[in-house]
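Input for the complex:
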Amino acid sequence: MIETLIFGAMTALTLTAFVGLYRAYKGPTTADRVVAINVVSSKVTAIIVLSAAYAAQASYVNVALVYAMIGFLSSIGVAKYVLRGHLR
Amino acid sequence: MIDIVRDVLIGFCLISGVFFYLVGAVGLIRMPDVFCRMHATTKADTLGAGLIFVGLIIYFGFSFASLNVLVVLIFVWLTMPTAAHAVARSEYENQHLDKTEEGR
Amino acid sequence: MKQQKRAGVVTMFLALYAFWLILASRFTTAQLIAGVLVAALIVLYGFDMMFSRDEASSLTIKRMWRFVVLFLVFLREMIKANIAVAIIVMSPKMKLEPHFKRIRQPLKKALNQTLYGNAITLTPGTLTVLMDSDSLVVHGLRRPNIDAIEGGAIQQAFVNIEEDGQ
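Predicted:
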């Protein structure tokens, strides 16, 4: 029962992630694209944690932690690069 | 009995979490400019992630898996607004560069 | 001064070791020893990343209680914010008046300022854009939203955390 619900949540999140991809393709400014990719990466983090519950593999949660860290660092990096033109 | 309460709690958390993610996605499409979009996505995604993770913490019960999920939850709640602030700041300074002219 | 530094080292080491144990999730001898080594290395090379006395206020029982109160207030505001955003997004004709405004910053310690900026981002209709030591630039969705920050419940809770308890 709960497993079905978790699978449904994963499917719904995957479908809404495509909305983010549309904005990343369309978005007029760079900030639009960064926000869209940020949204997609937060959805993917949630999907990974959900799949840890679905597959009953607790160690998948660490993958989600590393994924969240990489997403955060990359959006900070792009924001700084847009602001200054270099990364130092 | 307690199983039913637990299942209902998990179901409520997961469904409302997915609902708030959906709100974020609709906001990303419908809002008129970058800052308004950021309003929708930051708030909705943070609460959506929080709700889904709380549901999974109930699902895993008292174990190391739920401690790991708690770490991910704290990390996401601290970093989502910070990343939004960084992006908003860079966009704001790009837009207002010619007006303020601080000789950066 | 010396004593404060030692307390900082011990706190950082214990926090890192607890983090390692949570991530490792099992207690073999090799895991425990590797955790001690890694935590010690990070403390050795990264101690300057720890909050200093003028960046964060010291942790007392009273402050922890006030932090719990702050967290509950913040949670209530955040749920309100999300319902407001959901209503705005789902309504067929969005009534928005986006604008920027500079408001006063009441806090002094850097950690509290950071948390305050994040809390403003997550509460109804406001988004922190720029931040320095005595003011914030906030982007608002509607006029009343930004005016609700100053003297609001969140700001009061943050000021309570910073005050007294020395």
